[in-house]
Specification:
89 residues; flat
């Protein structure tokens, strides 16, 4: 039963990633694209965690944590660049 639930969740997250790619392509301006990239890394974290649950391995949770930290820093840097035009003051 858990395997079916994981497969359904993976399918939904993959669909969400495809819709994010569509929004990234059609995004009218830069803030929309940054928000789409932020959503894509959150979805990739969810996929990694589901894969870790499926394989019953804790290694994938550490990888998801690293991606979460890098995604936060990347989003913050992109937003700072968008607002000020410079990352390092």
């Amino acid at each position: 039963m858990l395997n079916w639930a994981i497969m359904i969740a993976v399918g939904m997250i993959c669909l969400s990633l495809l819709l994010n790619l569509w929004r990234l392509y059609l995004g009218p301006d830069l803030p929309d694209r940054i928000l789409t990239l932020d959503t894509m890394y959150v979805n990739s974290i969810a996929l990694i965690i589901l894969f870790g649950i499926f394989l019953r391995s804790s290694l994938f949770f550490e990888a998801a944590l690293l991606i979460a930290m890098l995604g936060f820093v990347g989003t913050a840097a992109l937003c700072k660049y968008l607002l000020r035009g410079d990352i390092i003051e």
